[in-house]
Amino acid sequence: MKAQWFNAVDQIGEATWQEAIGTTRYPFAQFAFHQALEQSKSIGDGTGWYPEYLLVMDDDDHPLAIAPTYLKTHSQGEFVFDWSWADAYQRYGMRYFPKRIWAIPFSPVTGLRIFSHLDPKGDDVQFAHLYPALAELMTQANQEREFSSWHLLFAKPEHAALFAPNKDLLHRISCQFHWFNRGYKNMEDYLSHFSSRKRKTVRKEREKVAKEGITLTRTIGKDLTTADIDFFYLCYQSTYGKRGQQGYLTREFFGQLAKNMGDKILLVQAFRDEEPVAASWCFFDDHSLYGRYWGCMEEVDCLHFEACYYQGIEFCLEKGLQHFDPGTQGEHKIARGFEPVFSHSIHYIAHEGFRDAIGNFCEEEAQAVREYHQDTHTLLPFKRET
Questions:
Q1: Percent of the chain having pLDDT more than 70?
Q2: Which residues are CB-contacts of 326 (< 8 A; sequence separation ≥ 6)?
Q3: pLDDT 10s digits, 5-35
Q4: InterPro entries given for it (predicted)?
Q5: How far apart are CA 176 and CA 326, in angstroms?
């Protein structure tokens, strides 16, 4: 087995990339996704995101796997926050950036971080040894270039556990809220598992939106028009604009995705009198729906819940999807039936002193996260078993 670094997807080529990932359906493993990031200039020069893909090959140069990594000159768009770590380095006159992240840009989604035809679903125990093996290559590459750290973000829990024997690597956890399909037949069946009071609350929220004259549509990416994408992008930027910021992703990124991987995209749109007022962009595969971007041009009570959660749950039930990851943070998801789950990241800190200090921080933080995770279970809307 051997490995080689590439700093552009086109250097690898679509044919080689596809041979490496095989039948992997995970949207964020697709060549088209990473090509769109690069060609739309959402990453690259001036963005603080510089791709370095690790291609793994057998001894006969047949591609086996790809690991997406990025050199970062800031900590934005990652969702595993390490600003305090960077500040500490600066206070001691040391350089934290550039660092390497092993992740999906702008996407706090738990999932594969090695894309391979040998393990298209990421659940083959025989394949899992590649994670610590590639971690050693990351460490070696960092040491050669004197980078401060590398960070594996939103790894699957079973993959994060593989790093436990290496005491130089730090394990960090956080809490998200995901929906799981427990064999529900439809939305009514799903809500029948709620307590009476919580079920009434959900119905009132949905009724509020309808009484405002709002209707919603769900459109697969390949059927989106230019006007649909233009309006969604206006909504996307408005979400950041309300915080005085600029969205990370360009209009070209979304247009290219709709064109080249439209069978993995869902756009929810809200209309009042046939005029669009809000939109929510999701990705999906054979198993999961991934809620990613939302925005509105008009504030309507409960519309966010309808467009980002209830419509997604209905889509999962219609398509037989088993899991809905609606995005990071947000305790308001709990009342809609999204359950607390742990997310996992692995961190290599080159400096021994900082590694010890950050390790202590991660341990203390983990205790608080576990307590929070336990507490939120009591807030779920489902009927109590007797």
A1: 100
A2: 177, 178, 179, 291, 308, 309, 312, 333, 338
A3: 999 999 999 999 999 999 999 999 999 999 9
A4: Acyl_CoA_acyltransferase, FemAB-like
A5: 9
User: Angle, to 10 degrees, between the axis of helix 14-21 and the axis of helix 31-39?
Assistant: 140
pLDDT of 386 higher than 60:
no
Q: In angstroms, rounded to a whole number, what is the distance separating the alpha carbons of residues 350 and 192?
A: 52
Six-digit token string for 117: 């035809």
Torsion of CA 161, 86, 69, 45, to 10 degrees: 170
Helices (H) and strands (E) in the chain, counts: 13, 13
Average pLDDT, the chain: 96
Can you list the domains of the chain with their CATH numbers? 2-175+340-379 (3.40.630.30), 182-321 (3.40.630.30)
Q: Cα separation of 273 and 262, whole Å?
A: 27
Q: Token pair 């996992």 is at which residue?
A: 344
- Pair of tokens at residue 318: 């219609």
Asked if 95 contacts 106 with a C-beta cutoff of 8 angstroms, the reply is no
SS3 79: coil
Instruction: State the average pLDDT over residues 329-335.
Output: 90
228 band by pLDDT with thresholds 50, 70 and 90: very high
Where residue 328 falls among pLDDT bands split at 50, 70, 90?
Answer: confident
DSSP type of residue 309: I
Alpha-carbon distance of 262 to 271, in angstroms, equals 22
311: CB partners within 8 A, 6+ apart? 216, 218, 268, 280
- Residue whose structure tokens are 């690991």: 67
155 touches 164 (CB < 8 A): no
